[in-house]
Write a structure and sequence with these properties.
Pfam families: ABC1. Its EC number is 2.7.-.-. 60% of the residues lie in helices and 8% in strands. It is globular, with a radius of gyration of 27 Å. It is an alpha+beta fold. The chain contains 23 helices and 11 strands. It has 3 domains: 131 residues, no CATH class; 190 residues, no CATH class; 66 residues, no CATH class. The protein starts with a helix and ends with a helix. β3 and β4 form a beta hairpin.
């Protein structure tokens, strides 16, 4: 099976002329004339980006999904290809309803008629990983029943194995290969694909997002019906709304599009900076608008998470961008380790200024974030910036937010909408209230550690590194007299917080 799949991929590569991507490289230049002579019959008049998109669609849903991920990595490809890959649509024919019923019975222990008051055999939506059916529970609640596509795991594993080989080829052929981490990109793709194959994980994602935005004036997340969920089946509250892409229909229902566009920006920054947990597949097919003007989120197979470290440096960078403080952008990149420590701050500052200064004081309709990101990635090559794989989904989501903003309100000023939110978040995190909150959170751990400190210090001083530690210890003792007032304040705060707890 693996060999047959490989042969099909090779056939599609040559049929669509994708060999030119590799044969254009100096290391394999000698094969160029041979391949062109043997495959003289091909029509390569269609632009290469279009041929690549069609080839991925021909290879099937897993390659389509990978193309969608690549469309967000403008550091890996020219803009014409990234723009074309962004047009990939993850739509596949539904599988047979008899198979859907069989999967339901295997997972729920009973046929659909015994579980649901009503179950529609015809799916309302079908994608590469699963399809969705309408149903009604015995108590009359309307639900969406998501059923995993049968037999998909072997195909995914085969295609991922081939993608790992392709990633190694990219690392070998291209000078930027190791810095751009193609193998890590494939590994991230592998993780998210396998996460999508476990619908219990998707249900947990939906439940978390719903809890984060419970009673929100901006976003509705459907309720999970856990009694009917398994690895292959997920049952959610049925949501009614207008697809976000149907602008005329939204206007007819009286929804305030400008307000909705602002909600999209605020939801994005709330998920990223308040929660560190965000819906990472916010394309128009997964977003509806409710009659009351709120967003409705659907399809929770792909979510992103950020550490406190990531959130801090993202916030610093965003705020520095908004304030046109390009020196702070440069120093934040160096502090985070995203650029080599010997990078000259003034050079990086000048490069970032050249990219970002032209975009300010302009409405969203006149700003292409794709072009801005492309220019930033070109700058990153010059300064050997390491691409952060954990931020790939964040970048993809930001581009989706841009697309939604363009559709709803071309004059939306993303900067002015986001800046107050970020300033408020930074104040809450790093102001006095943030200090008290962090001390209270860490107080129990400090209380458990303090009695052990003398013993651990003695063990450390007795170790092979004792001389170095002794020197550090005595230096601390010399500084203690100057620091006593601060230590006293911290100790007092800890005592107060422990008694309050």
């Amino acid at each position: 099976m693996f060999l047959l799949r490989l042969l099909k991929i090779v056939h599609v590569v040559f049929a669509y002329g994708l060999d030119e991507f590799l044969l254009g490289h100096e290391r394999v230049r000698g094969l160029r004339a041979l391949v062109r002579g043997v495959l003289f019959w091909r029509d390569l008049s269609t632009p290469r980006a279009v041929r690549l998109r069609r080839a991925l669609e021909r290879l099937g849903p897993i390659f389509v999904k990978f193309g969608q991920v690549l469309s967000t990595r403008r550091d890996l490809m020219p803009p014409d290809i990234a723009d074309e890959l962004a047009r990939l649509q993850d739509r596949v024919p539904p599988f047979d309803s008899a198979l859907a019923r069989e999967i339901l019975q295997r997972n729920l222990g009973q046929p659909p008629e015994a579980v649901f008051k009503q179950f529609d055999d015809k799916p309302v939506a079908s994608a590469s990983v699963a399809q969705v059916h309408y149903a009604i529970l015995p108590d009359g609640q309307e639900v969406a029943v998501k059923i995993l596509r049968p037999g998909i795991l072997p195909t995914i594993d085969q295609d991922l194995a081939l993608m790992r080989i392709m990633a190694r080829v990219v690392e070998w052929l291209f000078a930027d290969g190791k810095r751009l981490k193609p193998r890590e990109v494939v590994a991230e793709f592998d993780k998210y694909l396998h996460d999508e194959l476990d619908l219990m994980r998707e249900a947990a994602n939906a439940s978390q997002l719903r809890r984060n935005f419970l009673h929100s004036p901006m976003l509705i997340v459907p309720e999970v019906h856990w009694d009917y969920c398994s690895r292959e089946v997920m049952v959610l509250q049925w949501m009614r709304g207008t697809p976000i892409g149907q602008i005329d229909k939204l206007r007819e229902t009286g929804i305030d599009l400008k307000k909705l566009s602002r909600f999209g920006v605020e939801i994005f920054f709330t998920q990223v900076f308040r929660d560190g947990f965000f819906h990472a597949d916010m394309h128009p097919g997964n977003i509806f608008a409710a009659a009351d003007g709120r967003y409705i989120a659907l399809d929770f197979g792909i979510v992103g998470t950020l550490t406190d470290f990531d959130k801090h440096y993202l916030a610093v960078n965003f705020l520095a961008f908004f304030n046109r403080d390009y020196k702070r952008v440069a120093t934040a990149h160096i502090e985070s380790g995203w650029v080599p420590p010997d990078t000259r701050v003034e050079e990086l500052e000048a490069a970032v200024r050249t990219v970002c200064e032209p975009i300010f004081d302009r409405p969203l309709s006149q700003i292409s974030f794709g072009q801005v990101l492309l220019r930033l990635f070109e700058t990153s090559r010059r300064f050997n910036v390491e691409i952060q794989p954990q931020l790939v989904l964040l970048q993809k989501t930001l581009l989706n937010v841009e697309g939604l903003g363009r559709q709803l309100d071309p004059d939306l000023d993303l900067w002015q909408t986001a800046k107050p939110f970020l300033e408020r978040w930074m104040h809450e995190q790093f102001g006095f209230a943030g200090l008290i909150r962090n001390l209270k959170r860490e107080g129990p751990q400090f209380a458990a550690m303090l009695p052990e400190l003398p013993r651990r210090l003695h063990e450390a001083l007795s170790s092979n590194h004792g001389d170095m530690l002794k020197e550090a210890y005595f230096h601390l003792m010399r500084e203690q007299k100057r620091q006593n007032w601060l230590l006293a304040v911290i100790a007092l705060l800890l005592v107060v917080l422990m008694f309050k707890g």
